[in-house]
Amino acid sequence: MRLFVAISLPDQVRWQLRLLCGGLPTTKWVPPENFHITLRFLGELDGRDLDYVDAALAGIRAPTFSLRLAEVGHFASGGRVKTVWAGVQKEPALMHLRDKVESAVVRAGLDPDGQNYKPHVTLAHPKDPPPHKVQQYLAMHNLFRSESFEVTHFTLFSSHIGGETPIYHAERSYDLSANLVRYAAHR
């Protein structure tokens, strides 16, 4: 099973992101139901490895926190734009949660990720759009800011490839603790 750990987005934020999806030719847009912030891609896991990962993720304790999406950017390779994304405003609690997820999956037997983590929501995968159109799109949406939303849990998703777009299925959600927020706030 192909798996990843991510933060789901509330419907109102998905709607705000949906309004960004257009105006760039030769681009495959991500459907709003697939918008998420990946914490860790796990890849293909069998049943026993999945059980170890599930147990490790279930042991994570971290406070709830607020996030806001901010700006629109892109990843490129070989001079070609590969991904258009909405960024995540800097939030230490998100990085703390991501580090806990990384530690948990490594303890469960997976190899370390080894990549720099850049939190984002993938909006599109362009197919060789004219460079000036990409620059226009990015300039038009660079001031994008979502409303703030509360992160109360993270989710283990399976990804089923086939057809036009992948289908993501929430396998298990892991609650964050509001009690930890109160504890941290009183330190």
Cα-atom radius of gyration: 17 Å
CATH architecture: Alpha-Beta Complex
Order of helix and strand elements from N to C terminus = EHEEHEEEHEHEEEH
Instruction: Give me the number of helical elements.
Output: 5
Question: Overall pLDDT, averaged?
Answer: 91
Count the beta strands.
10
Kindly name the structural category: alpha+beta
Instruction: Going across the biggest sheet, name each strand in turn.
Output: 3-1-9-10
* Name of the CATH homologous superfamily: Cyclic phosphodiesterase
Beta content comes to 35-45%
Low-confidence stretches: 181-187
Report what the structure shows.
The protein is an alpha+beta fold and 187 residues long. The protein has a single domain (2-185), classed as Cyclic Phosphodiesterase, Chain: A (Alpha-Beta Complex). The chain is built from five helices and ten strands; from the N terminus they run βαββαβββαβαβββα. The chain has helices at 11-18, 47-58, 92-107, 131-141, 178-185; strands spanning 2-8, 27-29, 36-44, 65-67, 69-77, 80-88, 120-126, 149-151, 153-160, 167-175. The strands form three sheets. A four-stranded antiparallel β-sheet has the order 3-1-9-10, with helices on one face. Strand 5 and strand 6 (80-88) form a beta hairpin. Helix 2 (47-58) crosses helix 3 (92-107). The longest helix has 16 residues, at 92-107. The protein starts with a strand and ends with a helix. 24% of the residues are buried. Mean pLDDT is 91; it is low at 181-187.
Would you summarize the structure shown here?
The chain is α+β, with helices and mostly antiparallel strands. It has one domain: Cyclic phosphodiesterase (Cyclic Phosphodiesterase, Chain: A), CATH 3.90.1140. Helix content is 29%, strand content 36%.
